């Protein structure tokens, strides 16, 4: 600035004894940028005075020359030229300083985590309420006492999907949304489901004994009759069947008897022909979600798709039996004793233990309605988080549907009231959804996803599932997209625990959230299709009974009394805490400038799985070199993994260097964040054959886990292993990872593609 001052002074050929000060306030970091310019007075030059002050304070007796205009004097012409030059220089310096200030002033912390609280301040578009005030408001709106009347209002002993009871509950939900001042609507679908025989029975007969007629059924089982020797297989997991093979047990043409729990019913039926449950159960065995007769497209009444079936429909019969029926069979089985790890009490069965099973389910079409309400955002109203809960059940379904629906309605009431009466202005929208046909395999939710997939994948940035949020009180479990793990961890520290002595984190996480709280997202959870089919980051959670499953799901015994017994009469208190947990996650996602997603989390997951594949490829090449093409190399997959890592870190850097006051910039960055999950959906598989296309968390031959399993099969020379098929799967997975990296880089000129 001294140099600029000296230059301007020399132009006017005078000393810098008088100057005018220009204050250029940039409103950056609270500092003022000042530019001081020395301006010699033209009046001094004209009258020879000592300065502007002398001229203003004394009368001059000098007069202009007669007949001359002041502006035409040579001296004045020089002054005008100098003034013009001065204005140009001043403008240049102002522009230079502003540009330099913007370039040099960081707007975010320079840490790896861009989601720090330093930007919780107001912008011109939507004034931000302090986050502590937001959470305090939510706590004031929710209480355990308010849940009891809501439980009563939404309890119904008969609200199977598509029934009058289901429709009655749907009307109650939508009336609540309207009462809260929310925009509301319904979504109608016509779906095909299986119900128990309208006349006659499903039945079985063991060792030519009398026919048994279990009341339960498994929807989507094939109809027909199967006869074979009983084989007891514990929970029917892959590890259980490996133990049986290690004992040289014949698995061919056996009718498999398995227990409930640990994996979904559909996964059990993949490897068994008969399921055993401790009471009358009515789940489904479709290895997928949604209407299996319209796979990959919605069940709207006007669709004209040809008849087709999901590849996830089982080809073997499945039927539930009661605990008493199962115990009677187990006591009569011969053969080897079960492994000690299973209990060591029962025998596994032998060829003389013959049973005949007959299934006569009926396929019918039902009209179902999903119900929605929305609280619109004040900045990005077309970007939204979806909060959903199952509404239907085969019986009372208190834990399966009543608690979740009540939590949904109470959360909608609370946040609506915060917006209307307390000045809370969410930047983005919140959609509340009440799903029908959840008991048949998340049919309502999946059909909605299929119907609006193209728009949802671009606008829905998260799904929060409220199903089964209270099934016990000893544990608290969360399953979610890795992108949401950091948000979940912070939320656990914000919400009080049931014992009021600490937080959910201190009581349940105990310093290690991944070990004590997180668990894999299961295929039979309603959040799974949002994540693995649509690529929308999702979370599901709930209070549990510890390591045991709630025994009454899908039974007529899922009542309020049973759940109160499992929770020491604390259902309302636990429901209130679970609703707050969901509320904190949702509100954080619509409150902050940027979506709180952990962009680096997937780096470690990809690196770990790629490392396992690399190790197994090397093992197979050493042990079975003839099974893999000589040209196969893992280098390209490793390179793609590195490209993704660099692209995700580059996005973090872009966030740190961005101006969060710029609404459009925040929107662009959030859209890039939203693309991360969606890019893991393999573009090379059909939604009909492999609906869960996520290469890291989905299921099917396109996943990295499937590649690792295929290599294991090649190593052991399994008859179904195919080196050429593996080579093709490997190439497609490589390009899917590289495609994720390319898309994450955003601009085509920013791609890091060395393959």
UniProtKB/TrEMBL annotation:
Residues 370-574 form the Peptidase M28 domain. SUPFAM superfamilies: PA domain (SSF52025), Transferrin receptor-like dimerisation domain (SSF47672), Zn-dependent exopeptidases (SSF53187). This is Transferrin receptor protein 1. It comes from Cyclopterus lumpus (Lumpsucker). One of its GO terms (cellular component) is external side of plasma membrane. InterPro entries: PA_dom_sf, Peptidase_M28, Peptidase_M28B, TFR-like_dimer_dom, TFR-like_dimer_dom_sf. Cellular uptake of iron occurs via receptor-mediated endocytosis of ligand-occupied transferrin receptor into specialized endosomes. Endosomal acidification leads to iron release. The apotransferrin-receptor complex is then recycled to the cell surface with a return to neutral pH and the concomitant loss of affinity of apotransferrin for its receptor. Transferrin receptor is necessary for development of erythrocytes and the nervous system. Acts as a lipid sensor that regulates mitochondrial fusion by regulating activation of the JNK pathway. GO terms for biological process: intracellular iron ion homeostasis; receptor internalization; transferrin transport. It is a single-pass type II membrane protein. Stearoylated. The chain crosses the membrane at residues 77-98. Residues 634-744 form the Transferrin receptor-like dimerisation domain. GO terms for molecular function: transferrin receptor activity. Keywords: Cell membrane, Endocytosis, Glycoprotein, Lipoprotein, Membrane, Palmitate, Receptor, Transmembrane, Transmembrane helix. Homodimer; disulfide-linked. PANTHER family: N-ACETYLATED-ALPHA-LINKED ACIDIC DIPEPTIDASE, TRANSFERRIN RECEPTOR PROTEIN 1. It is found in: Cell membrane; Melanosome. Belongs to the peptidase M28 family. M28B subfamily.
